[in-house]
Structures are given as structure tokens and as C-alpha cells.
Design goal:
Layout lengths: L4 H8 L6 E4 L2 E4 L20 E7 L6 E11 L14 E11 L3 H11 L4 H33 L1
Antiparallel strand pairs: 1-2, 3-4, 4-5
Helix pairs in contact: 2-3
Amino acid sequence: MSAPQSLVWELVKNNNAYRVVRNGKVWTTDAFSNTGVQTQSGLGFIQKQAVAIQNGSKQGQFQVRALKRTRVPNKQAVSKNSNKLAKTNFFEESLPIAHGVHTASKVIRKKFAHRQGLQKQALRKLVHLNKAGFRRQNAQNQEKKQQKQ
């Protein structure tokens, strides 16, 4: 039997590997956190379903990683002393998306249609990553122009 989400939050909110304090504000470096702020709803490793969005190797490519936690039903016990608790499994699905922002947004909308809050956060993160990629590319182009002159 897995612990409730609120209990896990109480246990890890002040002490976990992803917790970072900068300028008096608590942040998280968890890949499945789409906001970066350490809150109960924002931490991905606590949630039953989470999404991580990362830049791909080229401009306009993204990788969407979906995490899903499911319960495995109990099997008939062979002996009387065997462990009868239901196990919790994690399934991670990685979707490399090479066709840009529109394809990535469609994937996110379909996968997380039932969780509107997570869907909004993931789409917002996708937009920010796309803008950052274009800014980085423009800065590199400007540096190349300056080096040629």
C-alpha cells in the first residue's frame, strides 16, 4: 500500500535532494516539476502522474517524458507468511518530438487532458523553452557576426 500524497509531502518538504534555497525562496530542481517552485502540487516525484519537458539536440526538438504511477493488484499468496501489500510501479515513457512546438503541444494536450493544471504548466514550460532556444540561437548568430568583422 502506498502512502497518501499529503503524507509524502509532509515527509519530504523540508528535506529532499531537489530542494534548493536561493535568496530566501525555496525552489526545486526536480525534472518533473514544471514550475520550479517547491509546492505540494508542483513536485513531480510525489504526483501519480507527471510530465518533464526538455530541449532536444537540435533547435525545435523536444523530449516529453511522462511518469505514471500505477498499482499492481495482489496475486494469490502461495504461503501464509508472504507479503500481501500491493506494490506500486512507476512507468516512464519518453517521447522524442522532432517536429517542433506544435507537435509537442498536441502530445501534452492528449496525454494530460484529465489534469488541466498540469497541462497548463507543461504547455507554459514548453513555450518558455522554445523562446529560450530561439534567444540562444540569435545570440550565437550575433557572436558569429561579430567574430567575422
